[in-house]
Amino acid sequence: MKRITCVHQGYELYGSDRSFCESVRTIRAAYPQAWIDVVLPRRGPIVEPLERVASRIVVEPLWILRRRGLVRLATIGLAALPFAVARALRRIRASDLVYVNTTVVADYLLAARLLPGRSVVHVHEIPEGATLTVLRGLIQWSGANVVFNSRATQAAFAMPPSVTARVVYNGIEGPAQPNVPTYDGTRPLRLLMLGRISRIKGQEVLVEAIRRLPEAVRARIELRIVGSAFEDPDRERALADLIVAAGLSARTTLAPFVDDPAALYRWADVVTVPSQRPESLGRVAIEALAYGIPALVSGIGGLTEIVEDRRTGWVVPPGSVEALSRTLEEIVTDPGAWRAYPAAARARYEAVFSADTAAEGIAAMLRLTLAGRQDGIRRETSPEPESPSLG
Q: What pTM does this model have?
């Protein structure tokens, strides 16, 4: 029986967490008899869906490179690193295959170098500056096979040809039937922004773009911003204050994170992802397509690989309040111009981002990694050929 370990840095159910759950389901489907350990840093909403497919959920400390904790990691956190690497090494040694979700799980990437041929790292982020340099170095050091979730992510990391890598778009288990479009301009447009509240997601830019609309247009938008800040209640309060100051509180709902956003997607006419920094792909935009909802996104990172401008949604320059505001006015006042977008969005989801398409890509990399490991075992255990007789 194969033993597979899947490691994830989170415990919530945001986009990267849901992508991890789908990867574990893919691994279970590919290896139904395998023993699958899932390693998490703590228990949280992610545990319940994982319990359906994992053999065991293990909670233990992970050495995770988070922006908010870099100073601590670089000082007192370094003392814990040798123990974390040793713990990761024991798990890798006991496993036929180790799937590491994202590059920030540093202890497993460091340990992977010592037991080559067993690990796959799935890259879901586009860091910048020194962080990118560090994470690129970690991947190369690990010797792991690599799955990138977009061409943008692959280009950002720019791995040398010696690294075994492939691009596999995140697959989404979408609804059986998409929404039936109903917006015709006679009621307010239902605009949804879903995701973690942070400086890179662009909630403040969206609020400002709506504030700048003519009052007659602004009154025709019903906005829902759904999400929470990661251990940062001050940011959540600041966003709420900004909505009030912009005069949008009567038409804006600010709601905390929800485990299952299906009802939100059923409500929405348009989903917006106004990110200010490169998204490695953009799960919310893919989920919007799955429901047949056009997406209004920033033209940055992997988002441009999801949304086709003026066909399945709209692409605007990141950080441009003016462009975002102008496009919102077009959407609200001329619904006939985008009548065909919902059907085109669903068709693109089915062709490119369905769960089956992604599952095959992940499974192919797992098979390649296991095949390489088995070849290595055979080489290590095969007897040396005898020297030819000289007569």
A: 0.88
pLDDT, position 69: 54
Q: Are 119 and 145 in contact (CB under 8 A)?
A: yes
User: Quick check: helix, strand or coil at residue 13?
Assistant: coil
**DSSP β-bridge partners for residue 281:** none
pLDDT tens-place string over residues 76-96:
567 888 999 999 999 999 999
Helix runs in the chain, H state only: 15-30, 47-51, 70-74, 81-93, 106-112, 129-142, 151-157, 203-211, 215-218, 233-245, 262-267, 283-290, 303-306, 321-333, 341-352, 355-381
What CA–CA distance (Å, rounded) separates 206 from 227?
Answer: 14
187: left (phi over 0), alpha (psi -120 to 50) or beta: beta
SS3 content of the chain, % helix, strand, coil (to 5): 45, 15, 40
How many CB atoms are located within 10 Å of the residue 259 CB?
Answer: 12
The DSSP call for residue 22 is H
Amino acid at 133: T
Structure tokens at 298: 């920033």
Checking if the pLDDT of 121 tops 50, the result is: yes
Sequence length of the chain is: 391
* Alpha carbon distance 211, 249 (integer Å): 11
Candidates 77, 147, 75, 81; CA nearest to 110 is: 81
d(CA 31, CA 29): 6
| pLDDT tens-digit series, residues 230-242 | 768 899 999 999 9
Q: Which residues contact 15 (CB under 8 A, 6 or more apart)?
A: 195, 283, 284
Q: What is residue 184's three-state secondary structure?
A: coil
Q: Decide if 77 contacts 44 (C-beta within 8 A).
A: no
**Domains present along the chain, CATH in parentheses:** 3-171+354-378 (3.40.50.2000), 189-351 (3.40.50.2000)
Residue 109 DSSP label: H
Taking each continuous run of H as one helix and of E as one strand, the counts in the chain are 16, 13
